[in-house]
Write a structure and sequence with these properties.
The protein has 193 residues and is of the alpha+beta class. The protein is built from 4 helices and 12 strands; from the N terminus they run ββββαββββββαββαα.
């Protein structure tokens, strides 16, 4: 008969690097996406290149960090009413792009604007991007009040000077959002191109 030591700590294998980790030591982090522990090093690596989702809904602004194995709000808590799933699409050996899917109580969210932006450099490209940047700032600081929930998703890219951007709304609110955006639609699309 095999004797079991009930005082022995429960260890886990990190699914990323296969290191043996002990949750009692605090050297790991629980993945709320994959329901398992990751070593601290793999956790830090995952969230270092995370996507950011800012949700504006009925005057409230909530920010989320969305990585491959972890998602949390500004307080480090699990999202309560929304589900986020990040995926990576490889376009060649060195490049690719991330996308974030969102779903909630009313169903899936859909992309209504997408492209890329950059900082406030003083060149023609950066000046073109500034229109979207100003719009996004107004949206997230309460200067603009959308008629439905809106998510502003920023994803890292292989170019240090650019950020991929998506704007999503619940599928049931696409017409409402597009009517609200109205004549600004074309200029924001151009700004993101």
């Amino acid at each position: 008969m095999q004797r079991i030591n009930i005082d022995a700590p429960e260890t886990h294998e990190c699914p990323e690097c296969e290191a043996i980790i002990d949750p009692e030591d605090g050297d790991c982090q629980w993945s709320n996406i994959y329901d398992t522990y990751y070593c601290w090093s793999c956790y830090e690596s995952d969230v270092q290149y995370a996507s950011t989702v800012t949700v504006v809904d009925d005057g409230a602004v909530d920010k989320f960090t969305v990585a491959d194995a972890f998602v949390f709000d500004e307080n480090g808590e699990d999202p309560r009413h929304l589900t986020f799933k990040r995926s990576y699409t490889s376009t060649d050996d060195w490049r690719g792009y991330y996308s974030v899917d969102i779903s909630g109580p009313s169903g899936d969210w859909v992309e209504v604007l997408s492209g890329w932006t950059t900082g406030g450099w003083d060149d023609s490209t950066a000046r073109r991007k500034q229109e979207f940047n100003d719009w996004a700032l107004d949206l997230t600081t309460g200067e603009l009040f959308p008629p439905c929930a809106v998510a502003l998703v920023t994803n890292p890219t292989s170019n240090l000077f650019s950020t991929a951007v998506s704007v999503l709304v619940p599928a049931t609110s696409v017409d409402t959002f597009n009517d609200w955006l109205g004549e600004d639609t074309d200029s924001l699309k151009y700004s993101l191109s």
